[in-house]
């Protein structure tokens, strides 16, 4: 099984190289991209079953023994996230194929898009299976370089402007991360995560706290944790629909994943849980209040993305195996549901020529299928029973109630309020865009006149037909969101086992034993 681990990163990189060589052959690029991501999905699923049954797999690359060389480490958490990521990347790829065919690739030139897309996937996969901090940094940089290309596709003024902000913020985060790696190496003589966890207790608490805060700061920027989330609502909505969907679903979760490793493995004895709890509460409340004040669907979803990162940080701040397992389930839920919602909004934009809830109306009659594709993930994200959003929030609240402190009770109330406001913001958009008739506007518009000054409220685009493959890709993702509910029991069991094993930790001896077969 250890031979399969490097292929998770190698296959998409090889696919990207082939796509660059054959930049003018669109059909070949599509075939290579689909085959690459499908293969990674299958390999990741095999590895998930293997590590859930027999334990983690560690591989030392290029013959350098652990911990001197580059270590790739796959446990249940890493394998599960690679499976989910590859499924999402494959679905969005199919969506982009339909969009490119219908629009003659004016927004997503294939000579650039498909190689950059596969490189983005390779960077995400590498980050999830990195066994040392420097390789995690390399994974971040691979995905960020690809994201710089994708976010500015089309070279429009708005995309270049927001892309510059995104690039500057990402570079600041990367510099902080690299500085933290240098300080960790200077203090402990290693960047291997297992060795760091074993040696960290030798440092004074003040030194641990400084290293801890610096890593959290770098990862919090990448995860869009308040108050470091200011860049996200302006950066994501301007990109093409497939790019926005991938960014919203996946990129912030890489930052959250890094925080999970930091809190559960590297700094077990250095407790910043109360700080994380307050940051989580602020992220939830400020994010969702921002969503309520928006009139543009992509910006509404971008602010809900920020607010729901708060739930994940909340789960990590509880710091129990049950809470970590619930957080993992919530990450899986949010990756899939948030991506699906952005795909549905991409369809709305094509059908109505706008994503402003002040302009879009009458879609229930005109596009009933689109109404269903938006409604199901919207109520799911809002936490309406019996969907996975409700299950994930309930699991987090249950873990908090088990601790039972007054702070936990405040967090539960904040989480419930955020969920209600999420449902309000998304259902208000549903009501205005789908149920409002073409001639039914005066009274309704008077009630929401305050939204007239919201950013991007007046933006309109050309109405376009929706290719069947775009609808099919979105419908497939909606089906996956429903599967999260139908198979919630087995999935939560896997997530809870992942949480328990993370809490147990892993020693260097175990890592060497597991990585012995190279």
Automatic annotation (TrEMBL):
Query: Keywords for this entry?
Result: Cell membrane, Membrane, Transmembrane, Transmembrane helix
Segments traversing the membrane: 6-23, 30-50, 70-98, 110-130, 136-153, 165-189, 209-232, 239-260, 272-293, 300-322, 369-387, 407-426, 469-492
Q: InterPro entries given for it?
A: CPA3_Na-H_Antiporter_D, NADH_UbQ_OxRdtase, ND/Mrp_TM
Name of a matching Pfam family: Proton_antipo_M
Q: Which residues form the NADH:quinone oxidoreductase/Mrp antiporter transmembrane domain?
A: 130-414
According to the lineage, what is the superkingdom? Bacteria
- Quote the protein name from its UniProt record: Na+/H+ antiporter subunit D
